[in-house]
Specification:
Pfam families: SKI, TMP-TENI. Monomer. The protein is of the alpha/beta class and 383 residues long. It is built from 17 helices and 13 strands. The protein has helices at residues 19-29, 43-59, 72-80, 97-101, 118-121, 150-163, 179-184, 194-198, 202-216, 236-247, 254-262, 266-273, 275-285, 306-314, 326-333, 345-359, 372-380; strands at residues 7-9, 33-36, 65-69, 87-90, 110-115, 130-133, 167-170, 189-192, 226-229, 251-253, 295-297, 318-322, 364-365. The two termini are 25 Å apart. The model has no long low-confidence stretch (mean pLDDT 97).
Length: 383
């Protein structure tokens, strides 16, 4: 099943802030996925905002992912400009999902559906990989909504969607006080419009909802090994060391292991033998770190190789994407002489954008500006 962040913010065209500015602000706050909802703006206004938001995200390491509400036409236009969005969310009256996926440039697009009654959530178009289920209760941001389904409807909807392999998203008048109940009822994510835009501190809202999800579904099992992945500067090495200490597990940093094995710094391997030689060392030395439970911090590029991903999964370790906005990570590591791939902003962002699809195959840890200490404590509150 598709992994989704715990809180899925949706733009609100009734607010004075432009849609592209809303998406930029939410991305900077730490949300990896935002839905672009342009109604009731006309097609031209929606297109200009969508293009601006997608271009902005592309220049910032592909962050945040953008899922377009309703508009297959605008999604198609964007794809033609080389700005294919992460996804397209289709309502019951929009283009059928399978037809949308056949549009040029849209294969690989994540398609979402809206479901409101059992007949809808029990038979979703198999071309979809996620679906909204709601409305949980009535909401001021959507006047034409269907009858609220409440917690029991949500439970039934989530079970039906999960049985079809779809990630269920609770929607409709939700606030942070609903989070634990919605996750317990089976939601993978909570979609929000009003709460997220009215909040003076959306990062704290995201943090609170992530903690609620961890309380219901901890990010790893007790005693299980953990592999931290994600971009350079996300904080994998720092968090990994601390997490291992708190869990009483050994800690391995793949870069340190490579340096110890080769007797030279990572930068010297890149300079002397090239990136290919470094990637071969990553793949050669990773399996030995997975033989007994441990916390393992990967380097920023190690999750790209399918063989490395397979060995982590086969070892039963929990892979976790430390999902820090690339612009924030760049601010920490730019031009660090020990990081050969953090010398040029454009190249750094292009790598992040190219790697994001592989990272998002795993559950995410969203730091939302918190310290590694806070992150470790929050991950362990489940126990
Ligand atoms: N949560 C955090 N908040 C602020 N700074 C952090 C955080 N995590 C890591 N850092 C700092 O960012 C830099 C990069 O961290 P590091 O652990 O080396 O990242 P990575 O291993 O993912 O490249 C270090 O200077 C570290 O102290
Ligand atoms: O992004 C990358 O490909 C790299 C990131 C580095 O690790 P950090 O993610 O710890 O910086 C290190 O493995 C090497 O310089 C290559
Ligand atoms: Mg590191």
């Amino acid at each position: 099943m598709l992994h989704l962040p715990p809180l899925y913010p949706i733009t609100d065209a009734s607010r004075p802030e432009s849609l592209s500015a809303q998406i930029r602000r939410l991305g900077e706050a730490g949300f990896p996925l935002v839905q672009f909802r342009g109604k009731p703006l006309d097609a031209k206004a929606q297109w200009l905002e969508l293009r601006a938001a997608l271009a902005d995200a592309a220049a910032n390491g592909g962050w945040p992912f953008i899922c377009v509400n309703d508009r297959a036409d605008l999604t198609l236009l964007a794809a033609r400009e080389g700005l294919a969005p992460w996804g397209l969310h289709l309502g019951q009256g929009d283009l059928p999902a399978a037809e949308a996926l056949r549009l040029p440039g849209l294969n690989g697009c994540h398609i979402g559906a809206s479901t409101h009654v059992p007949a809808e959530w029990e038979a979703v178009d198999p071309a979809c990989d996620h679906a909204g289920v709601g409305p949980f209760r009535g909401t001021a941001t959507k006047s034409d909504h269907a009858t609220p389904i409440g917690l029991e409807g949500l439970r039934a909807g989530c079970a039906a969607l999960r049985a079809q392999g779809l990630a269920p998203i609770a929607i409709g008048g939700l606030g942070p006080a609903d989070a634990k109940a919605c996750f317990e009822a089976g939601a993978e994510a909570l979609a929000m419009v009003g709460e997220v835009h009215q909040s003076t501190d959306p990062a704290s809202l995201g943090w609170e909802i992530q903690q609620a999800r961890w309380q219901i579904r901890p990010p790893f099992r007790r005693g299980q090994g953990i592999v931290l992945l994600g971009g350079s500067g996300a904080g994998k090495s720092t968090l990994g060391r601390l997490l291992a200490q708190r869990l009483g597990l050994p800690f391995h940093d793949l870069d340190d292991v490579i340096e110890a094995d080769q007797g030279v710094p990572v930068s010297a391997i890149f300079a002397g033998r090239g990136e290919g030689a470094f990637r071969s060392l990553e793949s050669a030395l990773l399996p030995a770190l997975l033989t007994t439970p441990a916390v393992v911090a990967l380097g920023g590029g190690a999750w790209e190789a399918p063989a490395n991903r397979e060995v982590v999964i086969a070892a039963g370790f929990a892979p976790l994407w430390l999902a820090e906005p690339p612009a924030r990570a760049w601010g920490r590591v730019s031009r660090d002489p020990r990081r050969p791939l953090a010398q040029d902003r454009g190249a750094f962002m292009a790598r992040c954008a190219a790697r994001a699809a592989a990272w998002s195959l795993t559950p995410a840890l969203l730091p939302f500006g918190r310290s590694p200490e806070d992150l470790v404590s929050a991950m362990m509150t489940a126990w």
